[in-house]
UniProtKB/TrEMBL annotation:
Its cofactor is NH4(+); K(+). Belongs to the type III pantothenate kinase family. This is Type III pantothenate kinase. Coiled coil: none annotated. A monovalent cation. Ammonium or potassium. It is an enzyme of class 2 (transferase). The gene is coaX. The active site is at D109 (proton acceptor). ATP binds at D6, C7, G8, N9, T10, N11, T12, V13, T132. Keywords: ATP-binding, Coenzyme A biosynthesis, Cytoplasm, Kinase, Metal-binding, Nucleotide-binding, Potassium, Transferase.
Length: 256
């Protein structure tokens, strides 16, 4: 069985893939100082809690935080006796090589999203991922990652308002009933919610104008369904897209 690990700047997600389906998905906050032993204590407690019969033979890691990879490597080696495949490292082959400026270190999560989305939908796609940052990953007709857009994440924008303005509270994003807010909270909700709808729509429209073929839009990340309530932003929403991409890249590297 494969243990797929997606480490974002905010959260780290572990999913167990038995070759047909994900048996479980576990989430913890990303923290570079977490040791291999601490990962295993957390992981084994939850696996036991869910009563899952697991036999991990392979581990694949995508991490937007370089410092966590060391402890995750030790975790894979010590507890599963395997050398993990790390996306973005030379020994990890991608199904299609990215076409970006030479020397660019593309976030591995974006390469994984591209591989997962291409496998499910074919080419000419925009993947919108609502993580710590909101990323737009453009997938060409042949499945290559050919660039995209990095915008500030939704929670980052809310946090920036709260941090910089003394009178603005910390709030969570929800869909406001009106655009014109009648109180501080509604005004902030509106700015972030409708602002993001405008951002996603505007950027996708401009990407489409620059691209030479019609494109479909795939939304992913915890907040994608919330924004889809406000407008028809996406052709499809897939909350397991990054995990699926990790299984695709693992299978590609296991061939032959
Ligand atoms: N379903 C959700 N509802 C509300 N907030 C969410 C949801 N899913 C994720 N978030 C928030 O969105 C932000 C990004 O989360 P995540 O997708 O885990 O980012 P990353 O992959 O960069 O670690 C975090 O602040 C997280 O708390
Ligand atoms: C853009 C990101 C910060 C998004 O990370 P996330 O929101 O998933 O934590 C990450 O993909 C990254 O660090 N990228 C490196 C630069 C690039 O992709 O071009
Ligand atoms: K991510």
């Amino acid at each position: 069985m494969l243990l797929a690990i997606d480490c974002g700047n905010t959260n780290t997600v572990f999913s167990i893939w038995n070759g047909t389906e994900f048996l479980c998905t576990l989430r913890t906050s990303t923290h570079h100082a977490r040791t291999a032993d601490a990962y295993f204590t957390w992981y084994s407690t939850l696996v036991k809690h869910y009563g899952i019969d697991v036999d991990i033979t392979d581990v694949i890691i995508s991490s937007t935080v370089p410092r966590v990879v060391f402890n995750l490597r030790v975790f894979a080696d010590r507890f599963f006796g395997c050398r993990p495949l790390v996306v973005g490292k030379p020994e990890c082959d991608l199904p299609v090589e990215p076409r970006v400026d030479e020397g660019t270190q593309v976030g591995p999560d974006r390469l994984v999203n591209a591989a997962g989305a291409y496998d499910r939908h074919g080419g000419d796609l925009i993947v919108v991922d609502f993580g710590t940052a909101t990323t737009f990953d453009v997938v060409a007709g042949d499945g290559a990652y050919i660039g995209g857009v990095i915008a500030p994440g939704v929670n980052l924008s809310l946090e920036a308002l709260h941090t910089a303005a003394a009178a603005l509270p910390h709030i969570d994003v929800t869909m406001p009933q009106h655009v014109i807010g009648k109180n501080t909270l509604d005004c902030m909700q509106s700015g972030v919610f409708w602002g993001y709808i405008g951002l996603v729509n505007g950027i996708c429209e401009r990407i489409r104008a620059e691209h030479d073929a019609p494109m479909r839009i795939v939304g992913t990340g915890g907040l994608a369904p919330l924004f889809a309530q406000g407008d028809a932003l996406f052709d499809v929403i897939e909350d397991d897209l990054t995990m699926h991409g990790l299984t695709v890249i693992h299978a590609h590297n296991s061939k032959g």
